[in-house]
Amino acid sequence: MTRIVDFPEETGAAPRLEAREPLHFLLGYHTANAARSITEISRAAAAAWVDALTRAGTPLDAASRGVRWWTAMLDRRCPTWNLANEIVLRTPFAHLRDFTADNHRSDAVVPTLVLPPQAGHSSTVVDFSPQQSQLRVIRAAGLTRLYALEWRPATSATRHITITDYLEVIDRSVDRMGGRANLIGDCQGGWLAAIYAALYPHRVHTLTLAGAPIDFHAGDSVIAASTIALTRAFGLAPYRALVGLGGGNMPGRAVLGSFIHIQPHTELARQLQLLENIEDPAHVERYRHFEDWFKYTQDIPGAFYLWLVEQLFWRNRLISGDLVVDGHRADLAAITCPLFLLAGETDHITPPPQVFAAAEAVRTPREQILLRTANGGHLGLFMGRDALAHDWPPMLAAIHRMSLP
């Protein structure tokens, strides 16, 4: 059941849920994952036996199915945008894309800027498909002057890009849009939006954070627990080593490997289900579409990556109020605009306490803060049919009402 929680003054503060001791949590988490993987293998093996006993076919037919399965797993294409758009600002590490239809350019509505996730994947997740497009839902809510930043793959020339560069490109984008905007930040795009809003509160009309880690140490998260355990023992050395192996950038393949390692049973199930349904064109197409986005990775600028690991993942300075960028304190208490927070009930990447911590850190009036918990996990917040149909529309409708003259 989807839950909407208004945050009026009389309800008091949402309690901060402390994470369990990292090593104990990780041991239990990975033990449970191993059990799930064994269960999935057993299920697939049983399904294969039933299939072999009921399907009429020759060994050549079975071999042909195997080849098609293997080919489908390896055949990857570059993700693409679905909605028509125009690049209106180019930098070596980010593009600003304008999704405003020509007949809506003069609409009297505050423009909206979407900051997609940035975790080694394409920014097209916010426009995943014609049926699963966060951008399409935003436009349909009346926020017709719509823009999104596209994070470009890091290269040797952009390995030294820093948090300052990312904040500057957001500021240039807001300038391009008229000087004030609704910010919508997904996951990593969310904490980036929060930092920008803390430094430039007068430029942000409303702030929406979906699956965005604000208190990186709250709740139980395998990413947070792993980072805390590693940095306690070795500091930044493991992360610097990965960046060194990537030629100065964090390899997208390494980030992908980490995500798969977090839930190996999910990856295993997806591949085995493909084999079981290799003769179903609709299933194969859905599989291809997701894999094209998930497995087509891109590198992250090394300097930026090491900064966020140290300042946010390790030292948790965003929520503590100690984060300083270029000599300026990024204090979330500077944020007073309406705040919308969306978390996934079963999000294993960013558990709800990490998102909802923002409600206690800002100075937005309580009656202008909305906390919402959606069914499902992390990716479902940005591309899931249920969240796009039931969770985003009421939040966007409220933002639209606030964005009219």
List keywords for this structure.
single chain, 14% strand, 47% helix, Rossmann fold
Q: Would you kindly provide a brief summary of this structure?
A:
The protein has 405 residues and is an alpha/beta fold. 47% of the residues lie in helices and 14% in strands.
Biggest sheet features: 9 strands, mixed
Low-pLDDT regions? 1-17
Q: What is the name of the CATH architecture?
A: 3-Layer(aba) Sandwich
Helix count equals 16
Q: What is the number of strand segments? A: 13
Structural class: alpha/beta
Relative helix content: 40-55%
Q: What is the CATH class designation? A: Alpha Beta
What string gives the helices and strands in order? EHHEEEHEHEHEHHEHHHEHHEEEHHEHH
The shape is: globular
End-to-end C-alpha gap: 35 Å
Overall radius of gyration = 22 Å
Determine the CATH topology. Answer: Rossmann fold
Identify the strand order in the major beta sheet. 1-13-12-7-6-4-5-3-2
Keywords: Hydrolase
Organism: Pseudonocardia hispaniensis
Protein name: Alpha/beta fold hydrolase
GO molecular function: hydrolase activity
How is the secondary structure organized here?
Elements: E1 3-6, H1 22-54, H2 59-74, E2 86-90, E3 94-98, E4 112-115, H3 134-140, E5 146-151, H4 163-176, E6 181-186, H5 188-199, E7 204-210, H6 222-234, H7 237-245, E8 249-250, H8 252-262, H9 264-276, H10 281-294, E9 300-301, H11 302-314, H12 317-320, E10 324-325, E11 328-329, E12 339-344, H13 352-356, H14 358-361, E13 369-374, H15 380-383, H16 385-402
Parallel strand pairs: 4-5, 4-6, 6-7, 7-12, 12-13
Antiparallel strand pairs: 1-13, 2-3, 3-5, 8-9, 10-11
